[in-house]
């Protein structure tokens, strides 16, 4: 029996990433807007997935399926687009990631130490168990809320953290969410670590004296679980009711599903695309629940941060057209303060954060984004964090788990400084 179980487990581990057999990734470096446009067209023509979007002044990273690789390379060669291999074997990289995660688990078991969701990449149950424990142990400052259930029926939870039970109207509200894009695993520990610092650590009393906090670590639980069990690079939700193709191509890009210039730029009306914006704004229960938190707390909310990865960026509105908000100076001032705080804590393997308007920094527009929607309804300071990948090497979404805690720690530095600077700026107005 033991031998059979061992063999079965090995077979499951081996089969887990078979979908990525033969997949490769490439660095691409456009030298002109024309070349950049050509690369952009390959997303739909050849189903290219850009881990890092290319710009004229920045290399991108393109994930290409086996059946399209020859044509992809022919296009690059014919159009003289500079490129080189990023990874010859995506599957082997993911197998290594699994081994590293398991080794990290083993370290904690060997020390008989409880592994927390900001120490490693943990499954949804472990994250929710931690939130349950925190709410149970600290009932005077923590209230756990089940906002609703995902398309597949999983609870979507957040913690309300307050020393005054959200009753002091003079306090500012900060809202942080993460993992709206399922494959961006590093974002979850960053959000959970914020819970730890606010509730268990409490070394900075100002953060509870002046602020009420809402932390939603996993905004897309269906996609998150699916990325652990089936497809590591799954990005969307898992709904199947959006179009006739949705049974075959489930899900919606949550960060294209908000009601702000919906379906106008940087999105797709093809249900099989990773950037499919859905059949209508807020078609997804996951985005509706984020919307509800924003609207319910709008009168006191001064700062909203939606955590994504990767690229070491702090982005602010407007992302759909690159125009600047009337509050652009405040947005940039607080953004730079957050980036500087992160830089003071960061490791040398990570790039320094860039701060700016979403379209201008990333190089492409995106409609229906959470950051733009929150700003459009009146949250004065709204940001998308793009957490770091390694400055050199292959790791982006699948960042070595040894970096989970350092990234969580440096991200918290940005969030905490951002809250304080946000309050200063909003109060000064």
TrEMBL record:
<feature type="signal peptide">
    <location>
        <begin position="1"/>
        <end position="15"/>
    </location>
</feature>
<dbReference type="Pfam" id="PF02244">
    <property type="entry name" value="Propep_M14"/>
</dbReference>
<dbReference type="GO" id="GO:0004181">
    <property type="term" value="F:metallocarboxypeptidase activity"/>
</dbReference>
<feature type="domain" description="Peptidase M14">
    <location>
        <begin position="120"/>
        <end position="422"/>
    </location>
</feature>
<keyword id="KW-0732">Signal</keyword>
<feature type="active site" description="Proton donor/acceptor">
    <location>
        <position position="386"/>
    </location>
</feature>
<dbReference type="InterPro" id="IPR036990">
    <property type="entry name" value="M14A-like_propep"/>
</dbReference>
<dbReference type="GO" id="GO:0005615">
    <property type="term" value="C:extracellular space"/>
</dbReference>
<dbReference type="InterPro" id="IPR003146">
    <property type="entry name" value="M14A_act_pep"/>
</dbReference>
<protein>
    <recommendedName>
        <fullName>Peptidase M14 domain-containing protein</fullName>
    </recommendedName>
</protein>
<keyword id="KW-0482">Metalloprotease</keyword>
<keyword id="KW-1015">Disulfide bond</keyword>
<keyword id="KW-0378">Hydrolase</keyword>
<comment type="similarity">
    <text>Belongs to the peptidase M14 family.</text>
</comment>
<dbReference type="GO" id="GO:0008270">
    <property type="term" value="F:zinc ion binding"/>
</dbReference>
<keyword id="KW-0862">Zinc</keyword>
<keyword id="KW-0121">Carboxypeptidase</keyword>
<dbReference type="InterPro" id="IPR000834">
    <property type="entry name" value="Peptidase_M14"/>
</dbReference>
<keyword id="KW-0645">Protease</keyword>
<dbReference type="Pfam" id="PF00246">
    <property type="entry name" value="Peptidase_M14"/>
</dbReference>
<keyword id="KW-0479">Metal-binding</keyword>
<dbReference type="GO" id="GO:0006508">
    <property type="term" value="P:proteolysis"/>
</dbReference>
